[in-house]
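hi! just following up on the protien thing from before. the input was this:
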Amino acid sequence: MNPNQAHRDLKLLTATVWQQRLAILGLVICLGLSLAIMFAMVGRERIVLTPPAIEKSFWVAKDKVSASYLEQMGSFMAYLTLDVSPSSIEWKKAMLLQYVAPDVYGALQTRQDLESDRLKRLNATTQFSVAQLVPNEDTLTVNLKGRLATFINGARTSDVEKEYVVAFDYAGNRIQLKRFEELTDGTRKIAADGTPAGVAARD
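and the predicted 3d structure came back as:
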């Protein structure tokens, strides 16, 4: 066996081992950086969701949504709840209930069933014209001000200023309706227990 050749082979193997060690070290460093970036992004990602009709740009994050998103969802809830007639109340009620949080589903369903019966019995239609939308990102609520017109048998019977509050819950990348209440002098603040109040339009 040639001692010189063996020495050269040993040096070559040693160099190869060091190259492999450096490559492994580089992979470990890249993996560590990737994990660090992933952990840093947890809770900060913004996921874009599409509302029923896009009117302006918006964003949603882990536990927050933008004011513009609240405005659009609040306006949509008002459309499903207040712009109703005997012919549209059933499908709008069904769509509304798709957005309702489970813990208030039964109460809101009962309320809308009663409203449906009332509209059909009176042959009534209600239309809400929004004049102002005031979102609150911290409480996930939207205050809506406008005029509610009521028609019975095609004749306008009332046209009054109304104010409503729409409260949402946002979890698991899904927004859910918690409350749709008319604000009066006695209900200027949402009750702390979150018990649903009037979803139906009132005159």
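The chain has a mean pLDDT of 78.
The radius of gyration is 30 Å.
cheers
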